[in-house]
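Work Package 3 (structural annotation) set out to generate three-dimensional models for the target panel prioritized at the project kickoff. During this period the team completed the workflow that converts sequence records into discrete structure tokens, so that structures can be stored uniformly alongside our sequence database. As a representative example, we reproduce one entry of 746 residues exactly as it appears in the project archive.
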Amino acid sequence: MTSHRFQHLSAAVLLVCAVTLRADDWPQWRGANRDGVWRETGILETIPASGLEVRWRAKIGQGYSGPVVARGRVIVTDHVFEPELERVLCFDEATGRPLWVHAYPCDYKNMEYGNGPRASPTVHDGKIYTLGTQGHLFCLDAAKGAVLWKKELAKDFNGTLPRYGASAAPLVVGDLLIVCAGGQPDANVVALDRNTGALRWKALADRPAYCSPVLINAGGSQQLVVWTADLITGFEPETGKVFWQVPRKSTFDPAEVVALPVLHKDRLLCMGAWSRGSVMLKLDAAKPGASVLWQTGSKPTTTISTPLFQDDTHFYAVLGNGRLACLEAATGKEVWDSLEATGVRGGTVHLTPNGDRVFLFNQAGHLILARLTPKGYEERGRFLLVEPTAGYRAQGPLTWAHPAYANKHVFARNDRELVCASLATNRVIEIAAPQPTLQSRVPAGFPESSSALAFSPDGKALAVAVVTWPNTAKVIELATSKERPAPAPFTDGICAIAFSPDGKLLVSAGGSEFTPARNGGKTTGQVKLFDVLAGKELPQLVGHTNKVFTAVFSPNSKTLATGGAEHIVRLWDMTTMKTRAVLEGHTGAVMSVAFSTDGKTIASASADRTVKLWDASTGKLLDTITGHDDEIRAVAFSPDDLTLATGSADWTARLWNVATRKERAVLKGHRGGVLCLAFSIDGKTLATGSGDETVKLWNVATEKERATLRGHHGGIATVAFSPDAPTLASAGPNDPVRLWTLTPEK
């Protein structure tokens, strides 16, 4: 069949799609045309301060794959444990009601960035095509979820998965399904019969990457463009015949190739990552062909965000440093950049134009509406659409999944829920915008982001675990903003920081759950001790082999407790600097550890949804507390040792009677996970920090909310009360430290 006849076939297929899919559906990654443009009208022009109307929320598991919307249904893939499965889930578009689930075993044991599936489903002609992280390819019946056919890339095509998992969303072209299989020999890309799964053609011996295939019209023909770790190739879609190729070898890692090639008239922009360069191709107008218009060896590059053309002369992209930029299309030179959209260095944003405006969904979970022009960035409102939850990052929780825009709504997911919110002009709810209860101040000289805070025992300094590269611990004087001596930067992430109560030592801890080459292909756990009085770093504590999330000293400063991804709590003798006990029993990562004020009991909170109480002297397990519906992120004893407080990803904090181990109260009000908490020095107030970007203060005696502190522009990872004044410090990975002056609790 000639290219001309194939164009007629594709037109017929598109006509069928128009019958089976509604015009404003979003049936695959980046929409119906895979161009990332939302063409629907009647969409609001600003996001009001009062926010958006959330129509429904549905519980799901982990994943980076974006949802898709087709024929009144929302489909998304996820990953769950106990038993470990990948799943395809189908929900009713109007209500969020679950309709069906297809599940299959999938081992993530050695998967880096292992939260869940990467590739969005593709819906076409009553069928759903999904590609899992380990290469499980399914064709499902959209009505019932029944398996019509399936493949395994490793087994069926001798496929090699890239180190972060299969990520390229399958593409329907005519009666073919195009899949980046990473196979050999010459099967990096394969074309399958979309109805039977039979192989129709295969091509390329290249290394696999993460970029999805895309169909373009150029040179009088449809062309299938596939960008691998070695080449950018234009194919004849029906036959697999190579029209043209442009060498572009990934020299650092195939993860340089994530962003989709973007077509604008006769130009095709292929934007790489990790400062390894980008390519602008000029496509031949008379026949299928491509030549290099410009190419760079370093900047500009992005990370995972696909760039956007708004006119003939400029394009917009999130650069590798996390700044949204306007660049000249003819040269790639930067016109302006801004950190407003991402809010953090190294952040990312998904860009979706709608008319003359652009919806931006950033990794902090904000949906932003803005105008992008060569003159600058003009924001028109933002709303926290989902809480960032994917915590397997040095910089803390985030969300990377691309949202879907369909039928005047936005659909977005994190690792716990799928959310539908209205973007229709006539569905805006005008209510009074919440105002901050108290004003905070951002002290000068403090870092932009933090995973943990700790006041010095004398209250004169604040220690900060800095999560922007290089990950390091800083100790800053509050009165002068001057830095005191502190430990050297971490090789990997930093998660915890604490002073010993006697003020002599500072501990900082972290590591990596991944296995990079710099660590000899192994996970790492680091626990650093710093002699505060001498101003020098002591030998590291050796024993942990995976990331350490929490570190705290006993009240007498003689014992250090640490816990992390190994599911254990390790107790260290500060006289010998050796492990004196290993507390085993948790089945999930230990997220937080606390000593009772009398030093006799240790509480450990875990991702396994339990809190365990241990005898601090013997290490004997005393009791296990259950009740939360999701992982427990924080635990603390009240100063009088009568109450235990816990914070969970289930959006609640809970108070427990220490003597009876019974639940006293469930503190509700946050619209995100409770990631951290702390009692005031007098024990009258409990502060809780959440992924909903607020800190709440609770009266411990009455179990009622006292105040809500607003002003952060990201999730709250850490809160700490000063020992000598009514000051609360709070911070997160997307925001600088804030100090709040509190009125005493009566």
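Confidence is low (pLDDT under 50) at residues 1-20.
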